[in-house]
Each structure stands twice: as C-alpha cells, then as structure tokens.
Amino acid sequence: MKKNRLFANSIKYSPRIKRILCGIGILVFLATFVGTFIGEIRWVPTPSMENTIMARSLVWMDKTQYGARMPRRFWDIPVLKYSFYLIPQLYRPDQKLDWGYHRLKGIGTLHRGDIIAFDNPKGDSVLFCKRLIGLPGDTVEIRHGLAYVNGKRLELPSTVMPTIEADTIHSVGFPLESDWNTHNYGPLVVPRDDDNPYYFVLGDNRRNSLDSRVWGFVRHHDIVGRVILP
Fold first, then answer.
1. Overall pTM > 0.85
2. Prior bond to 15 cis, omega within 30?
3. In 3D, which of 161, 174, 173 has the Cα closest to residue 207?
4. Are 168 and 184 within 8 A, CB to CB?
5. Under 8 Å between Cβ of 160 and 227
6. Less packed terminus of the chain by CB within 10 Å, N or C?
7. For the purposes of burial, counting CB atoms within 10 Å of the CB of 142, is it exposed (0-12), middle (13-18) or buried (19 or more)?
8. How far is residue 72's CA from residue 63's CA, in Å, rounded to a whole number?
C-alpha cells in the first residue's frame, strides 16, 4: 500500500519536475548563447588597470564590437566549461581539440584607447585586460612615462597612472636586445599582418603591469572582446 502511494506521488509531481528541468535547460541555453555571441561578465583579479579598473572588479566583456570568436574546443564554450570543474578528467583530452579559428563580423573596429580582453600570451586559461595603444603600422614610444603614437602624445583618461623617473631602473623583456625601461620605451613599430594583425597594449597602472613591454604584441586572433566600464 505504501509503495503504491509513493508511486502515485511520483506520477503526481513528475510534471512539476519536468517543468523545473525544462526551465533550467532554457536558462543554460540562453546563458550559453549570450556568453558565446554577445558578451560575458568577467572578473579582473590584478591591479594592472588601476585606477581605471580596480582589482577584483567585475566588468562586462562585449563580443559584438570586434565580432564574437567561435569556440575552438569545449572549454571555450561559456557555461559548459564549468562542467570541467566537476569532471576534471575531461580537461586534458579537450585541450587536444582544435576546431580552428572562426570569427563573426563585428559591428565596429578596434580603436586606440579601447580596453581589450585577450588570451594570456603565456598560454594559460586566464584572460588579460589592457588598453590598446598601438595599431598595425604605428610607431609607439614612451617618453618620461607618457605614451606617444606616431610622434604625437596619446590623450588618455586621467585614471591612467604613469611611471615616474625612478622607474627607469625597471628593465623590460621585449624586445630582448633593447636597453629600454618601463619609463622610457621605444620607439617601436607595430608590425603589419593582414591575416592576423599585431597590436601594442599597456596596463593603465604602468608601474605594476605585465603588458607588451614585457611579452610583446597581441595578435588579433587572441582578442576575445572589448571591456565596457560601468
């Protein structure tokens, strides 16, 4: 008798369970669609963009401006990639996948002064967030902490924290053969490449930022989106 009652209750509540599961499925689909084609909320863990973006802030990363970059493996699919934390054994074989580079057409183009999000040049899964300074063909230079592009001083927001004279003791890693420092850098020409353009980026917190002065140029294929400030 008790078993029959439990069976009857399971039948009674099954439509409600189906509606809940259906609702969860729709939410997951919408979140995946928005995250893939429109944009994502991302966390900025470091102070390299202070005082424009404070460390541990949340920002909106728009993917429509430059065109959404299509996933190259399951890890690149928003929402779905969090399943790898539940089943970590899937991560290693997934990294061997490569569906190729594909990008949708954007509604705009890259401009000097944009804050862009891009794949970490060191190769791990963390995104970097920096300000775009030099476009392909530009000559970039830092003179006494101030950025110049093609011989003209680049006008930047007042939140940018330039270096000071004492920072001349801090050498840079790119290019390897240079004797430049974080306070006086360049001139350096940004190479041209029509298939996969180069860009030069800097953190707004110039004294505490790993950027193009350290590891070189950012390639267009590595750019994920444009950071929109609140």
1. yes
2. no
3. 161
4. yes
5. no
6. N
7. buried
8. 16
Q: Where are the domains of the chain?
A: 1-37, 40-69+107-230, 70-103
Q: Can you tell me which residue has the tokens 């970490």? A: 120
Residues, the chain, total? 230
Provide the token pair at 154: 């680049």
Q: Per residue of the chain (230 residues), what is the pLDDT tens digit?
A: 444 554 445 555 578 888 898 999 999 999 999 999 999 999 999 999 999 999 999 999 999 999 999 999 998 998 888 888 888 888 889 888 999 999 999 999 999 999 999 998 877 667 899 999 999 999 999 999 999 999 999 999 999 999 999 999 999 999 988 899 999 999 999 999 999 999 999 999 999 999 999 999 999 999 999 999 87
* Cα–Cα distance measured from residue 174 to residue 230, given in angstroms and rounded to the nearest whole number: 33
Query: Are the beta carbons of 213 and 188 closer than 8 angstroms?
Result: no
